[in-house]
Amino acid sequence: MIEERVTGRIVIRRGSRVLIRIPFRDDCSTCGRCGLSADGRSLEVWAEGGPEARPGDEVEVLIPREDRLRAALLLFGLPLAGLLAGAAAGALAGGETAEIAGAGAGLAAGFAAGRLLQRRRKSEGRTGIRVAGPSRYR
To answer: Which pLDDT score, from 0 to 100, does residue 100 have?
Structure first.
């Protein structure tokens, strides 16, 4: 498994999971796995933390690259598939207006399905993100 290493600071610990604040990066803007923090300049992500991880610690976080691909498919692939399926259904129903309406409905359904699946993965804790250990860059 190919993983990307990023550095962040632990904010909260709940059981074996920790909330980590990571400085905002351009390539993270479309993932959807993280939420912007109150300051708007960093991302917050839940991760599996080791027993030694404490709030305030600076740590290295491992983010699986296939999760980024999965997030991109949910964000772009499902709406595109919905758009095409809706347009095809509208064309079969007849008329250009039905085709346009079907495409719009399919696009909206694709976006909604992507958000629902992303929220479910996040709520179940299946993000694949974990703490590698203390940061080497302190």
So the answer is: 95
42-75 pLDDT, tens digit each:
777 778 776 677 888 888 888 777 766 777 788 8
Q: E strand or H helix at 120, and its extent?
A: helix 96-123
Average pLDDT over residues 62-89: 85
Evaluate the CA torsion angle 89, 92, 97, 100 in order and state its sign.
Answer: positive
Domain that holds residue 113: 3-134
CATH number of the domain at 42, please: 2.40.50.100
